[in-house]
Inverse folding.
């Protein structure tokens, strides 16, 4: 079974079942205007799977939980942006990271934790957006639209089968993610010694190229998330795991929004 780059999607139990999925053959379900999350089923102790109870997960479950989570984050972000309380960004971001680690290492679905993460990151992104919006009015809205566009664009790509999620594809994306992370860390360390570090975040041509690459990697990782969601539905994991899937997708959307916001700011400076 294929792996996924999102650590939140590696802990779902495996069961047998057959339900509507994102299947590209035309039998899958695509809800109008709703967000689809991705989740990767993984091999676990059979005893764990046998202990799981509840009706099997469906696409509607994933849509509903993801829509609730994304909606909460959006509302929290807008309210923070309107309040002008940028000071909330750092504490909210810390809360979001702590909750994310709890969810990942707990390896259990939790509606309260998923909603807490969504609200906290919404506040954090709203706080971050205040500074950008003060410098470039309207950039936050552009970033939201851009993030939604990437999400639905990749959903169409997956639905039509334009790009196949194969083991080779997965390895390439995961390798790219590791490379991006290494470069980010190197740039951060370099900034302590040389102004601008490696030039990956200074707004110049190299920074624009790097940001486009990061957005591309994040976008293609969504394909693996959608494929993982297919596997979860096909395996018939319990419905409660839809919250776990929603959490996993939210982490990707947060990453995309931050990078798109950064890229748009670069274009404003050029």
């Amino acid at each position: 079974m294929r792996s996924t780059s999102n650590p939140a999607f590696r802990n779902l139990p495996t069961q047998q079942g057959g339900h509507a999925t994102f299947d590209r053959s035309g039998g899958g379900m695509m809800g109008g205007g709703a967000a689809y999350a991705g989740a990767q089923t993984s091999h676990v102790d059979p005893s764990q799977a046998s202990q799981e109870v509840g009706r099997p997960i469906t696409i509607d479950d994933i849509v509903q939980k993801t829509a609730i989570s994304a909606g909460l984050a959006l509302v929290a972000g807008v309210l923070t942006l309107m309040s002008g309380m940028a000071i909330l960004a750092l504490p909210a971001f810390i809360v979001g990271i702590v909750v994310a680690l709890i969810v990942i290492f707990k390896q259990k679905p939790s509606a309260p934790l998923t909603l807490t993460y969504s609200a906290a990151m919404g506040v954090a992104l709203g706080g971050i957006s205040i500074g950008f919006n003060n410098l470039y009015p309207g950039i936050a809205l552009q970033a939201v639209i851009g993030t939604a566009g990437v999400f639905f664009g990749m959903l169409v790509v997956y639905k039509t089968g334009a790009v196949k999620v194969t083991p080779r594809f997965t390895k390439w994306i995961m390798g790219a993610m590791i490379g991006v992370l290494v470069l980010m860390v190197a740039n951060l360390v370099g900034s302590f010694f040389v102004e601008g570090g490696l030039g990956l975040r200074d707004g110049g041509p190299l920074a624009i190229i790097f940001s486009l690459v990061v957005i591309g990697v994040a976008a293609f990782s969504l394909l693996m998330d959608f494929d993982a969601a297919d596997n979860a539905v096909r395996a018939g994991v319990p419905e409660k795991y839809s919250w776990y899937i929603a959490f996993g997708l939210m982490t990707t959307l947060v990453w995309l929004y931050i990078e798109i916001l950064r890229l748009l700011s670069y274009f404003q400076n050029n």
